[in-house]
């Protein structure tokens, strides 16, 4: 059971793509309130270099964040960062920023006459978050993922948080790039910790992965997406009849085995074309299609788009 669990965790982390779109460094004197409304296709990361700060989300309530805390909102969405729970908020897009370098800007709101020791310093990043073939996992993640829950089990995260605090405070040359890379790594560690700790109390897709026999089939499909998969070959991996396998698969995941394989292939194809700049011929071959034409028809049928449109978006 442990071996199967480690296998699909490795598959998940291998396919994870988490990279920053834009970053902001805030230094603000209380009282303040910042409202974020991040599209659901993006994740939002916040690191509190000097707090405290209150994070308010519609469905997760209010969370007090202290200096050194970090949170990841894997599905973005509407949320607020507040110096206290009763202050009014300004939309992040309406706050003046000072560009420091590409995709990195600074927000400073510290009126004269206020004590600098009370300033709050926050480092935030808006990130693309893609798990490739494991993409269904994102919808099962908690609304807010807090690094504080990981430190006892993963002490190696603490030096990264301390490095982020130093870079944010000292403003050394190259701090923007170092902060961005550290944020990417810490966010990935938060996801890994949640996965390794059992992914909380969720069922469905994860329940299938935790089933040693059914999980082994899913891991095999992710490992070899271009194999000529059939219900019979997947049932053989599980060691059961086709009818028993197909029924258990649909009950656990809500779709048929072959539909699952097709969805996985199309997600991987999109990732390989847009991120790895693979040719359509290469993608077709890697995913087990006999020709570019056969792959293009399958892609259009599944997504409503042609593979070529990914290279030349309208």
From TrEMBL:
InterPro entries: AraC_lig, AraC_XylS_family_regulators, Homeodomain-like_sf, HTH_AraC, HTH_AraC-typ_CS, Tscrpt_reg_AraC-type_HTH. It comes from the Bacteria. Residues 215-313 form the HTH araC/xylS-type domain. Keywords: DNA-binding, Transcription, Transcription regulation. Pfam families: Cupin_6, HTH_18. The keyword Transcription applies. This is AraC family transcriptional regulator. It comes from Halomonas cupida. The lineage of its organism: Bacteria, Pseudomonadati, Pseudomonadota, Gammaproteobacteria, Oceanospirillales.
